[in-house]
Amino acid sequence: MLFELLYHYWCVPYDPERFPEYLRKDPVHAYGQYAFEEGFKLGAQLTCLSLHDPHMQTLE
């Protein structure tokens, strides 16, 4: 249930206008690329935040 709630919060409905012209005819590819990009950005943000936490800077 948590995964579904997060998905509906994080992943917006497909809207062809949000994607480049070359991806509009392939909604599966377009939305897959969008989801990958959002996941990558979230991972990068979590990494940066963890590096600023003094308790997370050392691997013990």
From TrEMBL:
Top-rank taxon, per record: Bacteria
Record's protein name: Uncharacterized protein
Organism: Flintibacter hominis
